[in-house]
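Many introductory courses stop at the sequence. We go one step further.
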Amino acid sequence: MISESRYDAAAAERGDELLRAGDIEKHPAGGYRCLCKSMPLTRRVQSNGAICIGNQCRVCGRFAVVSKRGVDVAALPEYRSNEAWGVLLSALSGRDYLREREAHSAIWWAEYDAYLKTPAWQNRRRRVLDRANGICEACLEAKATQVHHTTYRHAGNEPLWELRAICGSCHEKLTELDRTREST
């Protein structure tokens, strides 16, 4: 399940609403872009005090200067910077990243589980248990019944020094420690 603490879930939901409404679209190359469908006339005060008239997108805040004569400038709404657009893009991108990462992780674990059933793994496992003389390398007391990866970097072609013979109890403790470290 995706951790909503990693992105602004409310902003992502607003982004989904805009996607459904057709106000924004997912770009084929990645990311999102606003289609700027609703751009009412606004006034924008420049840093030098000059007033510009232009259309501002209600979604992303994009401002396009236009030349308008005979417009009551004072009656136009004032330009608003749209920081919410950045938050929305960040939330959508963050959620997409987490979804892609979870999918990649699921694929990796499925491949790893298949690897554990191969003769190559069974041979490595047997050699590691033999090296430890059947004793847990973590507590040096219990019978080693499992093999623990110290890293998954070389999984599938791991050198034997990355594997440790351990008992079930120690394996559970190490796995819990690893999960705790990953979540912080």
